[in-house]
Amino acid sequence: MKNARLLLVGVIGAALAFSPLSGAIGAERGPSQTDLALINGIIQLVQREYVHKIGAHKLTVDALKGMMARLDPHSDYMDEQEFKESQANISGKFGGLGIEITELHGVPKVISPIDGTPAAKAGLEPGDLIVAIDGEPTNGVGLNKIVRTLRGAPGSKVTVTILRGTKKRFDVDIIRAIISVQTVKSKLEANNVGYVRITEFGGTTPGDFKKAIGTMTKKAGGHLNGIVLDLRNDPGGLLTAAVAVAGNFLDGGTVVSIHGRRKSDDEAYKAAKGSMSVPKNTPMVVLINGAAASASEIVAGAMQDTKRATIMGTQSFGKGSVQTIIPLDGHGALRLTTALYYTPSGRSIQGRGITPDVVVEAAKDVQVAGLLPRESTLHGSFHNPGSLINGKVAPKDIAKPTANPDLSPPIKAQLIATDKDNQLKAALAFIDKKAGGTTTAGSSGTPAKD
To answer: Which CATH number fits domain 93-180: 3.40.50.620, 3.40.50.720, 3.40.190.10, 2.30.42.10?
Structure first.
């Protein structure tokens, strides 16, 4: 059954054909006849007595959504239209604004705008609260309906009302477009130091990443003197993409393991032997911040545990759960949290995040104005379960972060990899020191042409 479903570790997902009615329920005991009669009776009561006429199917869908929403922040029921939209998301091409959002106290909150999209160009920032869309309040509407409202025909306009920090709310007009996500961006910095940024982990990310490394290596004369992997503001994505990207720096070995309710759900994901495209002795820095979540944390955690790279920046988001998309044969799909993931040493970062080896905050004048939510602040989020030791969770072994999880807000997305990016400058200076003082920190670099 594991091969028939697709695992997500971020805010985007996909699915393969699978009927949960024949496999997911199995021998598990379902609701009693009394419970079913109660649900059916309430639906009939609402249909008969509610002030407005309402269909039984809508009530059923809303009941399913409510059931899933009470489990945790990431489980959800998607109707057929929402399911199709989620499949479009993972393909890396869809209509809309290009924005990753979560929900905080019933209000949609921006995790990160995707580079080069209408949302990014309009100046939306991590931490922004979307309090209204086209004049309609968003409080309590529900995340899926918000996403559907934000989407529309390319070229059409949507007005979002933003609450940013302590500023007065303001309106932003955004023109919708077809979003073709370029998840990998690269450039060759001074003294042949490669810089690669991943904006999210999609289906094309591993191939694009390897191509970017090859392009920069060739431009550098066949050898990179160092590499900076930038995962800041990356909200996550596909587990398989994260493992494949990590394989560019590891010659085999476990990248991440997942531990579920049943022993049969446990699995270790290893880097493929022979997939390494950057030599082990190449100095490496991974940049993270509070908007780096899930798949980003998997890669950063693997690099940290294997001592392959130095992690720099600020504490990451702390999403350590795995969601499985389970299609429902023409009735949409479930996005269900089925496991937690663990770094190679057995650490769970759920609700805690990755603590950087070297803390470097974004400069005050380049920080976003709003406070970004953390996994631990989301309603219904899991507590850190403790480490995985010899295949078993040890709840007493819950490590506490050595850095304040409420460090400064992340850098504005449009300023990443510019001359105002002091965190990138710090990473380049660190590599300069490792390489013997020959790298010029802070150079804008030369874009790598693919």
So the answer is: 2.30.42.10
